[in-house]
User: Which sequence fits this backbone?
């Protein structure tokens, strides 16, 4: 698909009404903002330059409270004050000490987002605008960065992405991150447990050999413009848009973690989305008050995923369906309802080489189906276990680099 086809058929209206710009930018990042104060810019953005463009999408959904709408509208007006109006009503471009800020108004009356599209649509609006200007050569970078208003970015944020410019197989980046927590508070400990569970999951998938062993956090990702185009843009979901976008992009190439200082994500009580960090930490706190242990996926689930992926790779070489007989009973019972035999037969008949068959099978058994399988295993016998038991028994924890990060996170949880 060409950029023109995407802009004509899939892009949001803001991107199709942009006038040609008389400036050029080296880098761009999209930040959806809702119910924030204007001062967020000072804490989020690194010392920028006139070659940096920040696309801030001030948004709220129709169903949000009057107070949330009023605060977001005040934020939007404050950011746009003194800015240069663009051709499309509701967009202004301002110069700041951090670089240029393009403000998109999707919060004023008549411009609110539809319910149940929320942050996904806000990100898509900003990303589509960036794509339109990248086509006009206003934006020179091949990387489309996404972040959030609760993140502090390191000074090497953009440089870390440019280190991968000459690696076309790298289609997305998931930046290293740490949550800044108040360990003395119950909320802080809950957030540390949640972060620990994220790292535990990614380590488990990496050990299992999954192609989808990366963190799906919207505030820490960067996508190549070309890959963004190929997957038809950001999913317009009220949550999980990052998971589904990265899951699709990962089928096009490699997802990497760039080398730089970690992004710092602030601790705050947030219910902006129906699931994710805010709702998860609230749930953990409720369990803590009732004296319940925090639990994570059973380590054996990852061993079974590993077994399953090994069988897929072996089948790609042999096209022998009898290889399914090697699967453990637990994985066989859960995998076959996924139309497994159908997809195996199709891979054998439609792909001529083992490499092509393996690529097709790993594309079919993607991030969503991986998570779905782990949930099915949990619901049919492999119950979640207390996190300390999992960490003590999981074979994938002692990895040198990531294991140390996880243990550092655990040490914060255990500290008095």
Assistant:
């Amino acid at each position: 698909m060409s950029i023109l086809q995407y802009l004509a058929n899939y892009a949001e209206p803001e991107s199709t009404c942009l006038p040609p710009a008389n400036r050029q930018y080296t880098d761009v990042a999209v930040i959806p903002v809702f119910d924030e104060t204007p001062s967020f810019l000072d804490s989020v953005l690194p010392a920028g330059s006139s070659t940096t463009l920040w696309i801030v999408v001030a948004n709220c959904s129709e169903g949000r409270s009057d107070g949330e709408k009023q605060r977001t509208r005040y934020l939007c007006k404050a950011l746009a004050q003194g800015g240069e109006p663009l051709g499309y009503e509701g967009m202004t471009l301002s110069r700041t000490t951090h670089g240029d800020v393009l403000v998109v108004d999707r919060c004023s009356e008549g411009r609110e987002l539809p319910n149940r599209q929320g942050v996904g649509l806000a990100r898509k609006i900003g990303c589509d605008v960036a794509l339109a200007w990248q086509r006009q050569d206003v934006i020179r970078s091949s990387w489309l960065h996404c972040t959030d208003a609760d993140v502090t970015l390191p000074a090497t944020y953009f440089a870390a992405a440019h280190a991968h410019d000459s690696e076309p197989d790298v289609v997305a980046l998931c930046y290293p991150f740490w949550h800044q927590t108040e360990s003395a508070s119950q909320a802080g400990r809950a957030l540390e447990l949640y972060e620990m569970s994220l790292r535990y999951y990614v380590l488990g998938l990496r050990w299992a050999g999954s192609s989808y062993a990366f963190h799906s956090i919207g505030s820490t990702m960067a996508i190549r413009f070309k890959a963004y185009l190929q997957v038809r843009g950001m999913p317009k979901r009220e949550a999980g848009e990052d998971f589904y976008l990265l899951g699709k992009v990962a089928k096009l190439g490699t997802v990497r973690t760039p080398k730089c200082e970690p992004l710092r994500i602030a601790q705050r009580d947030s219910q902006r989305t129906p699931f994710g960090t805010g709702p998860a930490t609230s749930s953990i706190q409720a369990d803590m008050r009732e004296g319940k242990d925090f639990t994570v996926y059973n380590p054996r689930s990852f061993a079974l995923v590993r077994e399953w992926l090994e069988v897929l790779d072996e089948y790609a070489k042999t096209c022998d369906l009898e290889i399914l007989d090697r699967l453990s009973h637990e994985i066989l019972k859960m995998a076959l309802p996924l139309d497994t035999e159908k997809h195996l037969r199709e891979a054998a008949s439609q792909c001529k080489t083992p490499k092509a068959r393996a690529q097709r099978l790993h594309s079919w058994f993607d991030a969503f189906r991986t998570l779905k399988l782990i949930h099915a295993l949990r619901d049919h016998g492999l119950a979640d276990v207390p996190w300390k038991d999992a960490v003590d028994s999981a074979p994938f924890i002692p990895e040198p680099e990531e294991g140390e990060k996880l243990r550092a996170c655990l040490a914060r949880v255990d500290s008095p």
The domain at 3-178+213-264 is CATH 3.90.550.10 (Spore Coat Polysaccharide Biosynthesis Protein SpsA; Chain A).
